[in-house]
Design goal:
Beta Polymerase, domain 2; 11 helices; Aminopeptidase; alpha+beta
Length: about 350
């Protein structure tokens, strides 16, 4: 029984292109007479700055699969092991062994959909760092979930790959947070704070977990398809949060977006869904505090129809301002907001 190597993602290595080039030159000497469309570096190691499994993925164009069978013997002598993975689309090899991989090789007919897709997906990731970052987040989540199941890991990336190839990389959807998504939401909160130079310790992190898990918490997550944003709203109180519960007011406690997804409308989608839920639950008003020098947050709240109330508060050396809105004056949120590796 063959033992498969667990999925392991590593930081980008600047030597990956050189490793590919060495192998390309060697493969030219081994199977060059059967190559018709060149030998190409594909997969995540072909995209600068993208973390990946430390395996060089190689695409070699051939005239057809039947003729390419002549490559099997010389490739075996060169250390490549054949496996019947997607045999109707390609001949797939790994080197030196599934339990310890350094290279993957795909022999694919030139002009086939598989040949075009492998090159196109690589080029989309190279051209758009934002898509590459979202792909990296998806891979991290799937690698943790399917460490010992490569087939499921690959299949769960397929929707993202297909949408990207169609020129429409997956958009963000927002829904209520599920209990088993608590840690993913906390991770987004942590990453956003680290990115803005304000990391928090264990005590503050524990407090965030407690707030997100509270029975009266209205917690949302944004998925694209991995969790890239989170928001929390709670029943409001009189006297700017110091008094008794105000049954007419929903207080938005936090809205955080992962750094890789910032500027893509995730925050707006989260706030709109929170406001829509507040309206459905019978709240009449919504309010939120933010720092006066937090220009992106101010633009976010003003962009969804909230306005300053005139109330301010001093927090250490900074000033907070309050935004609020009447829920009856806002429109409802729309229903949705905006590989070859193995």
């Amino acid at each position: 029984m063959t033992t498969d190597e667990p999925i392991r993602l590593v930081p980008p290595d600047p030597d990956w292109p050189a490793r590919f080039e060495l192998e390309r030159v060697a493969l030219e000497g081994v199977i060059g007479e059967w190559i018709r469309g060149g030998i190409h570096h594909v997969g995540s190691t072909a995209v600068s700055g993208l973390e990946a499994k430390p395996i060089i993925d190689i695409l070699a164009g051939v005239s057809d699969l039947e003729t390419a069978r002549a490559c099997f013997e010389p490739l075996a002598d060169f250390g490549y092991l054949y496996a019947p993975y997607l045999p109707e689309e390609m001949h797939w090899f790994c080197k030196p062994h599934p339990a310890q991989r350094t290279h993957h090789l795909h022999l694919v007919p030139v002009g086939s959909q598989r040949y075009r897709d492998e090159l196109s997906f690589r080029d989309r990731l190279r051209a758009d760092p934002r898509i590459a970052s979202r792909y990296a987040m998806l891979k991290r989540e799937l690698a943790e979930r399917h460490r010992d199941d490569r087939d499921t890991y690959t299949e769960d990336k397929s929707a993202f790959v297909r949408a990207t190839l169609q020129g429409d990389p997956p958009q963000v959807s927002v829904r209520r947070m599920l209990p088993d998504e608590l840690e993913a939401a906390v991770s987004v909160w942590r990453a956003a704070n680290v990115a803005r130079g304000a990391p928090h310790g264990a005590e503050r992190t524990a407090r965030i977990r407690e707030k997100l898990s509270a029975p009266d918490a209205l917690a949302f997550v944004a998925l694209g398809p991995e969790i890239v944003g989170m928001a929390l709203a709670e029943p409001g109180r009189f006297d700017d949060g110091e008094g008794e519960l105000d049954p007419t007011l929903l207080h938005i406690s936090m809205v955080f977006v992962h750094p890789a997804a910032q500027g893509t409308g995730v925050g707006r989608s989260l706030v709109l869904h929170v406001l829509d839920a507040a309206r459905s639950l019978g709240y009449q008003r919504a309010g939120v505090w933010t720092y006066s020098d937090n220009t992106p947050a101010r633009g976010l709240y003003e962009g969804v129809g909230m306005a300053t109330t005139g109330k301010t508060a001093r927090v250490l050396t900074r000033t907070q301002i309050q935004y609020g809105c009447l829920l009856s004056g806002l429109s409802q949120v729309p229903q949705a907001a905006g590989g070859s590796e193995r």
